[in-house]
Design a protein that fits this description.
Layout: E1 5-11, H1 19-30, E2 34-40, H2 46-55, E3 58-63, H3 68-74, E4 77-78, H4 80-85, E5 90-93, E6 99-102, H5 105-117, E7 129-133, H6 137-148, E8 153-157, H7 161-170, H8 172-178, E9 181-185, E10 194-197, E11 220-223, H9 232-239, E12 243-245, H10 248-263, H11 269-280
């Protein structure tokens, strides 16, 4: 009798997630027998939700809003990426039953940006000035990887300036190592080459209150969120004639990294992204 391994994504909200479809495509590609579910978790019930999931045979799970910080805190072992971010989007259990945490968001973003820009990952954003909008779990997960691209400068803006300042302070040493000018801003500044939306604004379909010039013609605008129709941020960016992309490609890339952590196999992401784009009827500007 064959054994079907169980995986899931845990979040709130989570019904919109394409992760089950992505991992089903990965499993078919790799010839693996697994089931991957989307599980809605009560806002105060993340730790409790892990217990029945593990008891049902859960091998690992992805974590989405708003539980990424809690996921990292609960783990008995954290990867350097999860330690740096203080947030985790990938959990699993080792042979001794200890919960481990990693964060694949940053590498997922960088790999998708490399696809879009048609450049190698090493030195991907060299000479580029990057504006990161947000300072929550998503922003925490990607900032370290953005620094490692060797960007000329990265500015973090958040509606709560203290959160942006703390995020920058936590990454200051890494930024010095890579020679990246890193700072927090109290208002969204203008004149950036790459603008990344790591806020949850697109979940509610709400445009961000950005000053004129933040999104501009010639800039690359990237929303970590995704949906069938353009997100509010992507629509804003296109109206400003920026090159706009949503986070579907990042979702596929971070999922592939999680799959590799769990199963030791890295799937080919290109046909999976193409299949999702066809199923959703979305375009990739």
């Amino acid at each position: 009798m064959t054994h079907t391994d169980l995986y899931a994504v845990l979040g709130n909200p989570v019904a919109h997630s394409k992760s089950p479809r992505i991992h089903a495509l990965f499993a078919a590609q790799c010839g693996h027998d697994l089931r991957y579910e989307a599980r809605l978790v009560a806002l105060d019930g993340f730790a409790d939700a892990l217990i029945p999931f593990r008891a049902e045979g859960g091998q690992g799970c992805n974590v989405t809003v708003p539980f990424k910080f809690e996921a990292a805190r609960l783990a008995e072992r954290r990867s350097p990426r999860a330690e740096q971010a203080e947030a985790a989007n990938t959990l699993g259990w080792d042979d001794a039953g200890r919960l481990w945490a990693d964060n694949t968001d940053g590498i997922g973003l960088v790999r998708d940006l490399a696809r879009i820009l048609m450049r190698p990952e090493k030195g991907l954003l060299a000479t580029q000035r990057v504006l990161l909008l947000g300072a929550g779990g998503a922003a925490s997960g990607v900032l370290g990887a953005l620094i490692e691209t060797g960007a000329q400068a990265i500015t973090v803006w958040n509606r709560s300036p203290d959160k942006a300042s703390r995020l920058v302070a936590r990454h200051a040493s890494l930024a010095r190592t890579y020679g990246v000018a890193l700072e927090a801003a109290t208002v969204p500044p203008v004149g950036f080459d790459v603008v990344i939306n790591a806020t949850a604004s697109s979940l509610g379909g709400t445009p961000l209150p950005l000053p004129s010039g933040v999104l501009r013609s010639g800039a690359l605008a990237y929303d970590l969120m995704y949906q069938r129709v353009p997100t509010a941020f992507v629509a804003q960016a296109r109206e400003a004639l920026a090159q706009a992309h949503d986070g579907l490609g990042m979702l596929v890339e971070q999922a592939a990294e999680s799959y590799w952590l769990w199963r030791g196999v890295r799937p080919d992401t290109r046909p999976v992204l193409a299949a999702l784009q066809a199923e959703l009827g979305v375009r990739d500007d």
